[in-house]
Amino acid sequence: MAKRFRRMSDSDIHTIVADLDRWALGELGSKLTWAVLEERFGFSRQSLQAKSEIKAAYDTAKRALSGGLVKTKEQATKEAEELKVELARHRTELEAYKQREELWQRRWQQIAFHVRQRGIQMASVDKTPPEGADLPSNTESAKILKMFDKEIPPSGRV
To answer: Which of 40, 57, 114, 130 is most buried, with most CB under 10 Å away?
Structure first.
């Protein structure tokens, strides 16, 4: 006995397209076939395919489902947990960099203070060296700057 299908209205088309859009987002599962749509909406495959809006929405949903664009709830949950761990790691790393920057700024404030104490202006110290000049190595720089690693004495001001 043949199935009896009803006529499709504009409202039906809109509803089917909206559901297919939800399917493309993975909200209605990962199994999408014309047979599923026939069962769900009560229209024949031929009627569904004859409507260009439905055919386009179906093709889009199928591509999204088969292309791995849609994740299952378990995949999304696992990915969210991984992202939380990664975010926590980045926050910790950022805090470490902020502390290092704070120490770096403090050190240069100390160096500026001690250079100024010796009667030298920072502008004369913080110049680009002449073309071809050899800059000291990191080890030499560390030795030179070590003498400036003293704390800035408290000011007499209140």
So the answer is: 57
